[in-house]
Amino acid sequence: MAEISLYHPYPAAQVATWDYETDVAVIGFGAAGACAAIEAADAGARVMLFERGSGSGGASALSGGEIYIGGGGGSDAQRAAGFEDSTEDFAAYLKAAGGPCADEEKCDLYARESLAHYAWLKSQGVPYRGNYLPGKHIEPTDDSTLIWSGSEAAAPFCDIAKPAPRGHVIAHMGWGGGRPLVDILESRARDLGVDVVSDARAVALVQDGDRVVGVVVRIDNQPRFVKATNGVILCTGGFVFNDEMRRRYCPETFKINSPIGDQDDGSGIELGVGAGGDAIHMDQFFTTCPWTMPEPQAHGVFVNRAGQRFINEDCYHGRVSRCALDQPGEGVYLLLDIAHFDQPLEMAGMTIAGTGDSWEEVEGELGMAPGTLSATMAFYNVHAREGRDPLFDKKPPILTPLDQGPFVALELNFATSYFSFFTLGGLRTSTDGEVMGRDGKPVSGLFAAGRCTSGLPAWGHGYSSGFSLADCTFFGRQAGRKAAAG
Amino acid sequence: MAEISLYHPYPAAQVATWDYETDVAVIGFGAAGACAAIEAADAGARVMLFERGSGSGGASALSGGEIYIGGGGGSDAQRAAGFEDSTEDFAAYLKAAGGPCADEEKCDLYARESLAHYAWLKSQGVPYRGNYLPGKHIEPTDDSTLIWSGSEAAAPFCDIAKPAPRGHVIAHMGWGGGRPLVDILESRARDLGVDVVSDARAVALVQDGDRVVGVVVRIDNQPRFVKATNGVILCTGGFVFNDEMRRRYCPETFKINSPIGDQDDGSGIELGVGAGGDAIHMDQFFTTCPWTMPEPQAHGVFVNRAGQRFINEDCYHGRVSRCALDQPGEGVYLLLDIAHFDQPLEMAGMTIAGTGDSWEEVEGELGMAPGTLSATMAFYNVHAREGRDPLFDKKPPILTPLDQGPFVALELNFATSYFSFFTLGGLRTSTDGEVMGRDGKPVSGLFAAGRCTSGLPAWGHGYSSGFSLADCTFFGRQAGRKAAAG
After folding, report:
1. Do B10-62+178-286+420-484 and B290-413 fold alike per CATH?
2. Pair B232, B272: CB distance under 8 Å
3. Looking at domain A290-413, which of 3.30.70.100, 3.65.10.10, 3.40.50.720, 3.90.700.10 is its CATH number?
């Protein structure tokens, strides 16, 4: 018997008995896997879905259930709140947010199809209240539908594409809409006859020549051979819990310490590369520290250890956090005056590093040279009073003078504050979810979606909330349809 | 007949006739390939070396012929100039310079073996004059042996490891010592009976099960099958001339525009990955703009478009350049006063963006808000007069006040100035030059060295001149010996 390995496909010729036979085998039961299964089943394929855990969820169920949607004139929620949103602006924003890693074809396709995707989500039973919640939120604090979820209204993005709020959130009271979102998708998949097998870990692909024809799953500690006539769809998540992979491909993440995911060990990426797939942008990751809460803190100013600002703080909290990590040293400081200070979230692990009745005093407490932080804040305040930020183009209403002492500097320490993160690099896929080989051709019979691929959320510095679920659900569907078609 | 492809090994069972048979096949005739061939032949193996160009050279021949050497108390040249250098400090510097990408085993081994490697280079006929050239140089302007070639004496590296100059350069008048270095190595390889075949491009590996047993080379537009009983050594360089690979793995390089290399199209990386090898740190690249010449310019101060400093300008020119690329916008400015201004190198493509009798005037000419650049320079000058730099710890003698007007700001524009670059990511190899699979095991029969691997120069922000040739020559030798041993 050939070796069963994540790294090398198992030769079909050596499969003695197929334990299962199906048209489409989906690996992983997060949002990507659920959507792939739904579409494949809807197209008439027999679908088996294998999940290594005991139930559905994946990283999707840990999320806020927020999906990035817009374009086409605007969704119901966007239009009701007075926001127009063109497909062109939507696509332009997606591309800018993908930075040097953007997959322009995926951006264009998703911008065109986003409203239809929203309608599809509703048709699966995902509820949306339809209203807009103003302000700056990480997730809605109530059951609202629409929030600003990225850097749309902030420089430089607002100069590239007309901004609109596009974070569409399942009707769910408070944080954590990801769980009910996956529950609804699971229920829909089961209704369509998807055969769900839990506690079943994919350990190898089966290949016949260049074509993937099945997968080996470990069930009850035994390898089971699954024949998948039309194809295998990998929806296994990223590699944030695989330290070896992080070290080889994404070592910057060792600066920070709060991985988010659900057994995201990169196994799907290994399976895909072993079968001839290409893994791209493996150095990219999302990170954020919840520094915008309580709300007054969103008015704060960030400086690095040289007392310099480095970002327009009105952009997305994740972009601020990712740019913070680029600063030299062990952390950055969030500066607040008494009018904007509140007890930081305990979870955030932000500590008070300095206080004072003047910025000069804070500067001294932080051990910075006189004329560094204090000069930065004097410059900032002069212009904030005029409603402008000549350095980074931060805009009102977040732009307010911080000149009412006493003052405080909160430290966001890379090692000890809560910088949650997950990986963004993964298999290169076509807009139809085909895994692409390094030769630029699809790997026959192999598909993938979600964070085991590089998709809409390609670039850590440009991430917006809702990108990953948009990518998972939409390109999961694409993969499901394509695989079902054989 | 199976397909001949960079991306998939050719099955040995389908080779009708072997056109050549050898013990060790080396692919690529730069310094890495030459050293691999020499060691393999020296160990008694039959060696064939295939080079796609018409002669030896590769990117090595375009270099300064500088090799990073030290430790063990110091080389002859180091000691003659009064520099001690411990193996511990050497290893610590190599690791710091590798940043999050450092391969600690390679750093430790090379630090221990560096002086023996230097002796070996001499024994191959590489001449060294043995003297030290003080100052800050990209390459020696004469035929000197030893220069400061990295950020050893600059923060933060000088606080991590006791600094010493370690750039050891072949005796060669002026720039361009790489060509004579490769010539000497070529001559040595030929003397040892290495069978060199030029105009022969490797187009596929041949695998028998998991073992690489040969290579397909294209000669006179025909595929030729080369049986390599003991192994194949890939020494094919990086992927700086492969735009598709750059886009997938290293897209930051599209900001800049002057790739350096010799047909470095990543083919060896593709061959290695196709055979089961792992490619790591593919996002990393070296870049530099020759801003330290003429010499007075080395005293300049860099600011970004916000008028902020971002680096201690006394560190290595490549580190300064790489950190410059991290700044927002299209470029950075090098600020000089009349005492330190000279006509910049035409090659550098640096243009005068602003002038003035005061820094306030320069600031205005650059369109910066009052109190940005001028405040930065006032702060800098106050402390430079005291011989210190509280922000970035730049040190004398490069640290001098810039307060004698008139003043000038030279723009280093990412798109139009000369930012030369090459890629640093590549195959993961053991300290013996074995290509390592994603499963952590060597790919049997496959070896690699030089820029088709990730080696000592792993991290763009920490590169020092001489890292790449040290890596090529030393780990090329390692691979040659290991392959010869079968």
Report:
1. no
2. no
3. 3.90.700.10
> What is the pLDDT confidence band of residue A136, given thresholds at 50, 70 and 90?
confident
A226 by DSSP, 3-state: which? strand
Q: From residue A435, how far is each of A428, A430, A443, A479 by CA, in Å? A: 6, 7, 6, 9
User: How far from each other are the two terminal CA atoms of chain A, in whole angstroms?
Assistant: 29
ipTM of the complex: 0.96
Cβ proximity of B422 and B238 under 8 Å: yes
Helix, coil or strand: residue B53: coil
**Beta carbons of A316 and A322 less than 8 angstroms apart:** no
The minimal CB distance from B100 to the residues A244, A254, A282 is found for A254
| Cβ <8 Å between A437 and B7 | yes
- Number of C-beta neighbours around residue B415 at 10 A: 12
> Token pair for residue A120?
């599809």
A242 neighbourhood in chain B, CB within 8 Å: none
- Would you list which residues of chain A are within 8 Å, Cβ to Cβ, of chain B? 5-8, 99-101, 210, 244, 248-249, 251-252, 254-255, 270, 273-274, 276, 278, 280-283, 306-309, 326, 368-369, 371-372, 375, 379, 383, 390-392, 428, 437-440
Give Cα separations from A473 to A178, A260, B184, B379 (angstroms). 12, 19, 59, 53
Give CATH for domain A10-62+178-286+420-484: 3.50.50.60
Contact A251 B383 (CB under 8 A): no
Mean pLDDT across A443-470: 98
Q: Tell me, what's the pLDDT at A313?
A: 97
DSSP A369: P
Please tell me the distance from the alpha carbon of residue B468 to that of residue B457, in angstroms, as a whole number: 6
* Residues from B in contact with A at Cβ < 8 Å: 5-8, 99-101, 210, 244, 248-249, 251-252, 254-255, 270, 273-274, 276, 278, 280-283, 306-309, 326, 368-369, 371-372, 375, 379, 383, 390-392, 428, 437-440
Question: Where residue A396 falls among pLDDT bands split at 50, 70, 90?
Answer: very high
Check residue B2 and give its pLDDT.
87
pTM for the whole thing?
Answer: 0.97
Least confident of A136-140, A424-428, A454-458: A136-140
Q: Quick count: other Cβ atoms within 10 Å of Cβ B35? A: 32
- Partner residue opposite B437 with nearest CB, options A7, A390, A392: A7
Domain residue extents for chain B: 10-62+178-286+420-484, 66-169, 290-413
| Of A199, A250, A259, A207, nearest in space to A435 by CA | A207
Query: Residue B345 in contact with residue B178, Cβ under 8 Å?
Result: no
Q: What are phi and psi of A164, to 5 degrees?
A: -155, 150
Backbone angles phi, psi at A326, to 5 degrees: -75, -10
Strands B442-448 and B434-436: antiparallel
- Maximum Cα–Cα distance for chain A, whole Å? 78
| Helices and strands in chain A: count of H runs, count of E runs | 11, 21
Nearest to A463 by CA among A92, A151, A178: A151
pLDDT (0 to 100) of residue B238: 98
Count CB-CB contacts under 10 A for residue A86.
17
Question: Cβ neighbours of residue B191 under 8 Å, at least 6 residues apart?
Answer: none
pLDDT at residue A2 in the model: 87
Q: Hey, how many other C-beta atoms are within 10 angstroms of the C-beta on B340?
A: 20
CA–CA dist A88, A111 (Å, integer):
8
C-beta of residue B302 within 8 angstroms of C-beta of residue B334: yes
Write the pLDDT tens digit of every residue in A178-226: 999 999 999 999 999 999 999 999 999 999 999 999 999 999 999 999 9
Mean pLDDT of A307-316: 98
Q: What is the pLDDT of residue B393?
A: 97
